[in-house]
Design brief:
The protein is α+β, with helices and mostly antiparallel strands and 346 residues long. The protein has ten helices and 13 strands. The strands form three sheets. A seven-stranded mixed β-sheet has the order 8-10-7-11-9-12-13, with helices on both faces. Strands 3-6-4-5 form a four-stranded mixed β-sheet. A hairpin with a 7-residue loop joins strand 1 and strand 2. 42% of the residues are buried. Bound molecules: adenosine-5'-diphosphate (ADP) and magnesium ion.
Length: 346
């Protein structure tokens, strides 16, 4: 995983900028009927089909947001797209197009960028979105990636962060804490590898959490599920930073309080066992870990029957009046104030 898989190494300078862009985008074809013009002109043309357009951008910097020593470029391309699609989904919208801009140094080969674009293509295929443009430029050292994602949603279905009401249920999709623990395992293996480069670690027992870190998914399936269940959340946000800071965002913007139940937080068994191995508190990890890209939402009590028992959605708390404040109710039934960095047990 850590070694450089690319034997062939064509310097970027061998291809002109146009040839490079053509080469990297040659396998992409447009799937969406809203894409009128994709890559190839001065700008793309999109027809929103009488829906509202959702637009979001994220920038990723080598050494700040990703480390290529354990992040294969194909995974990085996939993740760079997915984290943007997740933001579109968090508006209760369906992603439709992306643009990808890169600043790249001559440290990278054409083959390395091919791997990166293979990951972008996989994400575009899985999520049914079109790559409709971007920009290619040079950087002095590291790799800089900027992805913009576009989506559409009927105006009456948009869900903002600020709609939570007292008595609403606090609900999360999937399980959390895995991506952070996957990163802990990868960082530990990187240190081991530095000492003994011949050591090929067996990471199979960590497969779920490593995948959560290297290949996160946007919960587009949850947006489709909510539509099918006829549930429109009152507020929603995707979990990029950590459960507690996202809860605080929802509550502050909605001007409400919250009671979060420690024993309701959904954790994968692998997260629990690896937390024990690292001597970390799994609740702290769930609250402050981040990068899980699950959806956190509030729904009206009236909709409880529609989501009850659904394995993809877990009720983890209740919204209260702002004056009540924001608290974690621990397993020992004590109340602890929720803080953005999570909750540290003694
Ligand atoms: P301009 O000089 O007008 O910015 P470019 O040569 O940068 O034009 O881009 C030409 C076309 O290729 C445009 O459609 C642009 O969106 C697309 N493009 C450029 N770089 C990338 C990239 N890295 N990935 C995808 N499309 C790209
Ligand atoms: Mg350009």
């Amino acid at each position: 995983m850590i070694e450089d898989k690319n034997n062939a190494r064509t310097p970027l300078g061998e291809l002109g900028e146009f040839t490079l862009i053509n080469h990297l985008t040659r396998d992409f074809s447009n799937k969406r009927n809203t894409t009128i013009k994709g890559v190839g002109d001065d700008a793309a043309i999109i027809d929103p089909n009488n829906e509202q357009v959702v637009l979001t951008t994220d920038m990723l910097i080598e050494g700040v947001h990703f480390d290529l020593s354990y992040m294969p470029l194909k995974h990085l391309g996939y993740k760079a797209v997915v984290v943007n699609l997740s933001d579109v989904c968090a508006m209760n919208a369906i992603p439709t197009q992306v643009t990808v801009s890169i600043a790249v140094s001559n440290r990278f080969s054409v083959e390395a960028l091919e791997d990166f674009y293979a990951g972008i293509k996989t994400a575009c295929d899985i999520y049914d979105v079109d790559l409709v443009g971007g920009d290619t430029t040079s950087s002095v050292t590291g790799l800089v990636i900027s992805v913009t994602a576009i989506g559409t949603v009927k105006s009456e279905n948009i869900v903002y962060r600020n709609g939570a009401k007292p008595n609403d249920l606090l609900v999360v999709s999937g399980d959390i804490g895995g991506a952070y623990m996957g990163l802990q395992v990868l960082e530990r293996e990187k240190e081991v590898f530095k000492v003994n480069p011949n050591n090929q670690p067996d990471l199979s027992m960590y497969s779920y959490i490593i995948e959560r870190q290297l290949k996160p998914e946007a919960r587009k399936d949850i947006i489709e599920l909510l539509e099918k269940l006829e549930v429109k959340p009152t507020s929603m946000i995707d979990i990029s930073d950590g459960l507690s800071s996202e809860i605080i965002h929802l509550c502050k913007q909605s001007e409400v309080g919250v009671e979060l139940y420690e024993n309701k937080i959904p954790l994968d068994p692998q997260v629990i066992s690896v937390c024990e191995e690292f001597d970390l508190d799994s609740t702290t990890i769930a609250l402050s870990g981040g990068e899980d890209y699950e959806l956190l939402m509030t729904i009206s009590q009236q909709d409880y029957d529609k989501i009850k028992g659904n394995p993809n959605l877990t009720v983890i708390g209740f919204i209260s009046e702002a004056a009540v404040g924001m608290h974690l109710i621990t397993r020992a039934e004590t109340k602890v104030e929720l803080i953005a960095r999570g909750w540290k047990s003694f």
